[in-house]
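Cross-check.
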Amino acid sequence: MERETKGAWIIHHGQKIRGDAHGAAEFSALDTAAKAGSLFAQLARSAEATIPRTTVNAYSSAIGLNPRLELGPILALLEDQKLVETTNNEVQVIGATTTRALRASADIFDELIPSEEEKASLSVAELTSSSPQMAPELMEYVGDAFRLPAARANDFLRRSELIGFVDAEGEGAEKLFFNGNLFREAGPGKVNKVLTTLNADERCRLAAFGERLRAQGCITLASAARELGETLISKVRAIGLFDVNFVYNETGPNGFVTRPDAFHKFVSPLVDDAFDLAKALVTALSYGIQRSSVMRGRIWGVELLVNKLIRGGTVGPAPAIGQDYKYLEQRGVVEVYEDGSAFSMRLLKPEIGQIALQVLTRGGSASVQVLETLPSSPMTGYRGPEASRSAFRKTDRGRLRKTDQDVLHVLRTKGVLR
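Predicted model, tokenized:
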């Protein structure tokens, strides 16, 4: 497995571990490496930068690190990797990118001497993101590849499912394990296999919805639910056939549906935007294009604006900058500062801007059209597809019925139903 891919799975697993009471203790190398990589991704700049400790503390809090107990050891690990230099008052970062943060996560993970279960969790995630795996086959693979006795391999798969490293449906020997990235590189073959599991009415509705989604880029979750019906959208949403992103404003969460491969039309899945930073930047910029009034600072000429940011320039002043970019500010993507009676900002991660620019200007935008339906109040937050899918699956509505397991089963066969 390439270092960047390995690092991306480490970050993915680290986010899952945070939601489990015992995950950090049980998978300590994964947890530590993920936290180190996530912090470094926030600190990363295209050029050498000196960041005040107060800002570093704020970054650590934004990703769930305890600044008193965890920040010091995490910075020490990054310093051992010669990625940062620390003093009491500031942290110096040697020019870096989010891709380098993934490689750092992989290197730190290896140096922490991970358990066989931790190493297995990365391989199993990669395997099940290609096609669903039957429980007996996956248990045999884990036992052979990582020399785990049957009881230990079985317990590992049970914990992997509970924590969320992988998803599972079914019982006993019929249980199927899969990963939320199953459709990240969804060619027509995979989608056509899903269609074979549906009745005639469902096939027609899903095919029509898929065409509309391909043409429009994205559709509101409410509109998708009306078009597909709650049962069908629950089925395809739970397995990750569609992504659901959320924009937050004063009205609460506003969901919009995209194809998993749409955003990655021009970039590599999983690795290039492992932290969902480019998705969040596209969303914030699109929000400014569609929903900001002239008085707030409506964006026009987005290509000119983003190119200026990529070159290191400053944009503003505008009131909207102080409201719509808080999430990105917390993640170290932009720096926002008061400029008279409004706010200006500059981009701290040009590579994230490059991805966003491709999406916004070359037909891959998953945000622009749907944001026309949202109120023009300030954008207060963003939640990406995997976090949204995981939260959905934890509800009763998100659980697949036995008949719905055919969708997963057919993906690992030649399209023949059981």
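Residues 214-390 form one domain. The chain has 20 helices and 13 strands. Passed to J.P. for a second look.
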